[in-house]
Design a protein that fits this description.
The chain is an alpha/beta fold and about 675 residues long. Helix 10 packs across helix 15 (about 500-515) and helix 15 (about 500-515) packs across helix 21. The longest helix has 16 residues, at about 615-630. The radius of gyration is 31 Å and the shape is flat. Bound molecules: adenosine-5'-diphosphate and magnesium ion. Magnesium ion (MG) binds near residues 203 and 216.
């Protein structure tokens, strides 16, 4: 046999031997050791290899070779026959043959794996430690295909990245070669495109000063799940702004969800009809016997799950039907859900839900919350939970958010978050989108929609800590957690990933306030009263991933005239009832003129303003001065933090927010919340 010969394609799927996988790798541009395969104990070709050599046995039951005694390192060509005999005697499994290969020099051992995530499809994982990767959990993950920048970012993000720069005075690893290997595995046209064959695991890959080599390779056969074809987004406007709506399921005798919705719609004044088999009106709303008789753009269905399909079958001519009822896939009845989706398809209507609350759109008088609709605005929300969407609407509006469209999707049997996102990204009224998801359905399609969206997107994912991963067959599989995947999705698509409802609202508020501002700087400045708050501010921004660069060395000179005694960042300035209201704006002005800042965070300790009296006027004067500064400096985004605001008399916080909002300044109650928002904003608004 000649060097590097392999046995053609991996025909017997259960036994794709190491040398066959390595042949695939070599073809894909991944360096593997030179070697050959013997089945007849003729080790003659070893003469063409450089010693030391490695001998590995392969066979149907041999998976973890070293555990079975099927790997021998550091051999000369002459030692091969004896080593093979010894191995045959020792290895308990059937040996089909031997792989002889050159032994790579010691170096930094890495794991490189390609697996298919059930929702997001092909992902590439790399990590330090090779066989110890699972114990170290020092890994990085990206969805395929990756870019070269992704490959470099992956390596840079490892905790042990410094090992690649040369450990303890050793020469640095050839990082370009590692990047090239990662690209060959996960880049455009790479090995990942062959994932339909199953998973790949290169473990270890040995990286040294003069290159990399994958010294072990495994392949776990599998089958690619069929991916549902993505629908081109339809015109979703009537979903948000229907001419008229119908409600199916309201009762004449026992008020239920249907009756509740009749009440909501009557409050917003949307033209309305009830569907009832016998009554001519329900709760004072005129009724028709079937959806077929309703001339509406949107029908809300709130009847028991078993009857929903039959109702939806009558919806021909109604562009959108929302099924509020639960009791479908989520309750263990996938058959009912399929039947419902088929009924919608047959009627030519688009289905929202089932198991969802519907749509909120002040502009379209659409709602699923009581108390009428709030102001129309530019923030959209897609939510897999109706309850959470209701909370975000109520709390968000209380904090000054104004929504363009809110849509809850429930089980997404037809209309998906991805389709909605694609539509909202092009919607004239929408400037930022929040997403609350638990299960992405077709995650790959969602990822692509996120990448295509060129407006700010904020992602809140529930259940990320969930034990969603089934017992994984490979190290790589065991290292791919839901949390890591979502971090990769956000990182690669530019979406901001937040971890709480509060931050979802806070980041959306940032985009609402600053959305149209174009910033010229990259740096962030924090200004406020001295003390522990400034120290903690630095920590909060650090945790959010925002660097607070030191001020220029001669900044203190320009600031001294203003009574500033130390020029740090956070910059400590006297803020309070005794300080001048205009001091902070003057400081900002001086610094912004010296060097461009993208964000300036001004913070106050609210109770300090009430130390010498109970008038809020100094606080308002301060806020007005900061508002004026924002109006005078369109190239910087000013954010206000009103710490300990609950200590102010009632109404004060609202007035501060009102003054700030009028100038397009978002207000946060904590430094942590502001830091998360400023971090999210860092990806947008660059000139
Ligand atoms: P296993 O099936 O046990 O994972 P490997 O092929 O990974 O077997 O071999 C076990 C170890 O031997 C590897 O982790 C690596 O440290 C070392 N090794 C294997 N092949 C080579 C090689 N060609 N060059 C250098 N070291 C090797
Ligand atoms: Mg191995």
């Amino acid at each position: 046999m000649s060097l590097g010969e392999h046995e053609g394609a991996a025909s017997a799927a259960e036994h794709v031997y190491e040398h066959e996988v390595k042949a695939m790798l070599r073809e894909a541009g991944v360096p593997v050791p030179r070697g050959f395969v013997v089945r007849d104990l003729d080790f003659g070709p070893a003469a063409e290899l450089s010693e030391p050599l490695v001998l590995k046995a392969f066979g149907p039951g041999l998976v973890h070779k070293s555990d079975a005694g099927a790997v021998a390192l550091g051999l000369t060509a002459r030692e091969l026959p004896a080593a093979a005999r010894a191995m045959t005697a020792k290895v308990p499994a059937t040996i089909a043959g031997f792989l002889v290969e050159e032994q790579a020099d010691a170096g930094v051992e890495l794991i490189v794996g390609l697996v298919r995530d059930p929702a997001f499809g092909p992902v590439l994982l790399t990590g330090l430690g090779g066989v110890w990767a699972e114990a170290l959990r020092d890994t990085a993950l990206r969805l395929c295909p990756i870019s070269e920048q992704d490959a470099r970012d992956m390596l840079g993000s490892l905790r042990g990245a410094a090992l690649l720069d040369g450990h303890r005075g050793g020469p640095p690893v050839d990082v370009d070669a590692v990047v090239k290997l990662l690209m060959a595995a996960g880049g455009p046209g790479g090995l990942w495109e062959r994932l339909e064959l199953g998973e790949f695991e290169l473990n270890p890959v040995i990286a040294g000063p003069s290159g990399v080599v994958a010294v072990d390779a495994r392949h776990l056969p599998g089958q690619a799940p069929a991916r549902p074809a993505a629908r081109p987004p339809g015109d979703l406007l009537p979903l948000f702004e229907p001419r008229a709506v119908a409600v199916v399921g309201a009762s004449t005798t026992r008020p239920n969800f249907g009756n509740m919705f009749l009440g909501f719609y009557r409050a917003t004044g949307l033209p309305l009809v009830a569907v009832h088999p016998t009554a001519s009106e329900v709760s004072g709303v005129p009724a028709v016997p079937s959806l077929a008789r309703a001339d509406v753009d949107y029908a809300l269905v709130a009847v028991p799950a078993e009857r929903c399909a039959e109702v939806v079958r009558q919806a021909y001519g109604v562009p959108f039907v929302q099924v509020m009822s639960g009791g479908f896939g989520e309750a263990g009845h996938p058959g009912l859900e399929r039947e419902l989706a088929e009924a919608a398809r047959a009627a030519g209507t688009r289905l929202l839900g089932p198991n969802c609350m519907g749509v909120y759109c002040p502009r379209g008088r659409q709602t699923f919350v009581g108390g009428g609709v709030g102001p129309a605005g530019s923030v959209a929300l897609i939510s897999q939970s109706g309850g959470l969407a209701g909370e975000v609407i109520k709390v968000g509006e209380r904090r000054g958010l104004a929504f363009s469209r809110v849509v809850t999707v429930g089980n997404s049997a037809d209309v998906t978050p991805a389709e909605l996102l694609r539509w909202l990204a092009r919607d004239e009224e929408t400037r930022a989108v929040g997403l609350y998801l638990e299960d992405p359905r077709d995650g790959r399609e969602l990822y692509e929609a996120l990448r295509a969206a060129d407006l700010p997107v904020v992602l809140l994912v529930g259940g990320r800590s969930g034990q969603g991963q089934q017992a994984a067959a490979s190290h790589t599989g065991g290292l791919v957690s839901d949390r890591r995947i979502w971090e990769a999705v956000a990182g690669q698509s530019g979406a901001a990933l937040v971890t709480s409802q509060d931050d979802l609202i806070g980041v959306l508020a940032f985009f609402q306030a600053h959305g149209s501002r174009v910033t010229t700087g990259e740096r962030v400045l924090v200004v406020g009263p001295s003390g522990g708050a400034s120290v903690l501010a630095a920590d909060a921004f650090d945790l959010a991933g925002v660097r607070l660069d030191p001020l220029p060395g001669d900044a203190l000179e320009s600031l001294r005239g203003l009574g500033v005694v130390a020029a740090g960042n956070p910059l400590e300035v006297p803020v309070g009832p005794l300080g001048r209201a205009g001091l902070v704006p003057e400081v900002i002005d001086v610094l912004v003129r010296r060097r461009p800042y993208r964000d300036v965070v001004a913070h106050v300790n609210v109770p300090a303003f009430f130390t010498y009296g109970d008038t809020a006027e100094p606080l308002y004067a301060y806020t007005r001065a900061v508002a004026a500064a924002q109006e005078a400096l369109p190239g910087v985004r000013i954010t206000l933090v009103t710490r300990n605001g609950e200590c102010a008399p009632p109404g004060v916080d609202d007035e501060v927010r009102r003054i700030a909002a009028a100038a397009g300044i978002p207000v946060y109650r904590s430094m942590e919340a502001a830091a998360v928002a400023v971090a999210a904003g860092g990806r947008y608004g660059a000139a």
